[in-house]
Amino acid sequence: KAGVTQTPRYLIKTRGQQVTLSCSPISGHRSVSWYQQTPGQGLQFLFEYFSETQRNKGNFPGRFSGRQFSNSRSEMNVSTLELGDSALYLCASSMDPSYQETQYFGPGTRLLVL
Amino acid sequence: AQKITQTQPGMFVQEKEAVTLDCTYDTSDQSYGLFWYKQPSSGEMIFLIYQGSYDEQNATEGRYSLNFQKARKSANLVISASQLGDSAMYFCAMRGGFQGAQKLVFGQGTRLTINP
C-alpha cells in the first residue's frame, strides 16, 4: 500500500506571498492532520480533517487554513507569508481520529520564506 | 492539557549496545495512546511502536520495545542491539481522550548517535 505523499517537497517563497501544500493519505485513511516543525518550537499541531470536516485546530493565526476533499486528499494554505513560517510541514493520516489509531506521516514539505 | 517530556537532548551509544530513551507524559485522560517516531535527517517521521493506556503488556516491535509504567506516567523506548542506521531524532508522542484524540502531542525529541 502506498504511503502518505506530499507535494511539493521543497518550496521557496517571499514574504507576503501565499502557498498551498497538498497531501494524499494512505488509501482508506479518512483522517488527515497537519503539523509544523521548526527548530525553536518543535512539532506543533495545525489542524485535523475527517470526512471533509475540520475537527480540531491548533493555536495558529487565521492565515493558516486547510480543507479536505471527498477522496480524503487535503490541502493547507498559508496566506501573507512571514519569515517565521519557514518550517517543515508534515501531513499525517490515520483510519480515523481515535486515540488508538497510528498516524502515518508523509515526507514533508520544506518551506523557506525569504 | 497533555504534555510529553523527553529529558535527554542527545545520546551517544556504541554500536550493538542497547539504549533507553526516556519519556514521561502528563494527562488527565483515562484513554490515550503513546507512540514513538524516528526522524532521520531526511525529515520523514517513521512510526516505531504504539502502547495503549489499557494495554497490560509492554509493546514490542522487532528490536524496539516500550517500557510502560502507567503509575509513573513513563513510556521509555528501548532499542536492543543498536545499529548505525538507528542514528536519528526520536520523538515520543501521545494521542489522548476523545476531544483531543485528533492530534498528536510531541516531546522535544532525543538525538541519538550510534558510534561504530
Write the layout of secondary structure elements.
The complex is a heterodimer of chains A (114) and B (116).
Chain A: E1 5-7, E2 10-13, E3 19-24, E4 31-38, E5 42-50, E6 53-57, E7 64-68, E8 74-78, E9 87-94, E10 104-105, E11 109-113
Parallel strand pairs in A: 2-11
Antiparallel strand pairs in A: 1-3, 3-8, 4-5, 4-9, 5-6, 7-8, 9-10, 9-11
Chain B: E1 3-5, E2 10-14, E3 19-21, E4 24-26, E5 32-39, E6 46-52, E7 60-61, E8 64-69, E9 74-79, E10 88-96, E11 105-106, E12 110-115
Parallel strand pairs in B: 2-12
Antiparallel strand pairs in B: 1-4, 3-9, 5-6, 5-10, 7-8, 8-9, 10-11, 10-12
Description:
The complex is a heterodimer of chains A (114) and B (116). Chain A has 114 residues and is an all-beta fold. Chain A has no helices and eleven strands. In chain A, the strands form two sheets. In chain A, strands 2, 4, 5, 6, 9, 10 and 11 form a seven-stranded mixed β-sheet that branches. Chain A has a four-stranded antiparallel β-sheet with strand order 1-3-8-7, with no helix packed on it. In chain A, a hairpin with a 2-residue loop joins strand 5 and strand 6. The model of chain A has no long low-confidence stretch (mean pLDDT 95). By secondary structure, chain B is mostly beta strands. Chain B contains no helices and twelve strands. In chain B, the strands form three sheets. In chain B, strands 2, 5, 6, 10, 11 and 12 form a six-stranded mixed β-sheet that branches. Chain B is globular. The model of chain B has no long low-confidence stretch (mean pLDDT 94). Chains A and B meet through strand 4, strand 5, strand 9 and strand 10 of A and strand 5, strand 6, strand 10 and strand 11 of B.
